[in-house]
Amino acid sequence: MMDWTDRHCRFFHRLITRDALLYTEMVTAEAVLHGKRDLLLGFSTDEQPVALQLGGSDPKKLADAAAIGAAFGYGEINLNVGCPSDRVQEGRFGACLMAEPELVGQCVRAMADVVNVPITVKCRIGIDDQDSERDFQRFIDVVADHGCRLFVVHARKAWLNGLSPKENREVPPLDYERVYRLKAARPDLTIVINGGVASIDAAVQHLNHVDGVMMGRAAYQTPWVLADVDARIFGDAAVNPRTRADVMADIANYADGHVARGGRLHAIARHVLGIYHGEPGARGFRRHLSERGVLPGATGDVLREATALVEAAIARREELSQVA
Hints:
This protein folds into 2 domains: 7-232, Aldolase class I (TIM Barrel, Alpha-Beta Barrel); 244-323, Four Helix Bundle (Hemerythrin (Met), subunit A). The protein has helices at residues 7-16, 29-34, 37-41, 59-72, 86-90, 101-112, 133-145, 165-168, 176-185, 200-206, 217-221, 229-232, 244-260, 266-269, 282-292, 300-323, and strands spanning 22-23, 27-28, 50-55, 77-81, 119-124, 150-154, 190-194, 212-214. It has 16 helices and 8 strands. Strand 7 (190-194), helix 10 (200-206) and strand 8 form a beta-alpha-beta unit. It starts with 6 loop residues before the first helix and ends with a helix. Helix 1 runs antiparallel to helix 13 (244-260), helix 6 (101-112) runs parallel beside helix 7 and helix 13 (244-260) runs antiparallel to helix 16 (300-323).
């Protein structure tokens, strides 16, 4: 979710769900150690619970980056061993590390030795020709032996040669059963499934077999799917459930603060485009944000205007349905 789940995206998602664990976009250990930390790691306490996802392969650098992340207040440090992009491979981290389970384990141990928050791993079910169930099980066992107790498993293998990152999210077939079998074989581990989960109904079905579900693209592209998470997954039904309009009012106020501090509205508006997905007026909502959200001096009023347009279209639909 690089370039997607930044602090503005996470604040927006937290307005929709109180209970779901949110993840940062992947940040390299090198960037944490040598980059602008406040920009890379800064977040609002309103985003909690939130996990920091790191990329890297040097145990010492990852340990130092994890310590910095924990000091910022993140409640979990997640090592990404599942990203298949070329620039990630060139840096010797991401999915290519699944070929080196002992090194991944050393990274996990180094981080766990310096922080008091959980160290978790996100991985694939295999890479290239190393994709047998035995290879996958060995990877999990070796890394678990170094102290990792929670694995987020994208239920696709990754082709490091021949497929683009986008194709690696879509072309290799999903194999949920392999992840289910991992949980059955290792009931002592917490196993979270990822990949192609587009609805809460699907998440509920997965929870019959594993401990948790990670939603990525669906949560970003159709964020209102998260509105059912608290009640259906966590049993935390609100007395007065919030509406899309409530969320948009809050994010507009948040945007005003961001703009007042010198920020651009587009940095926030780009994350909310899908909240009215499937509703009448959704196209006009997106067009209004896309055209006016990028203008110099744009404020939260652009969000309020777009919301008014789509809510009016929804109200007209309700009126027509009552007449019919």
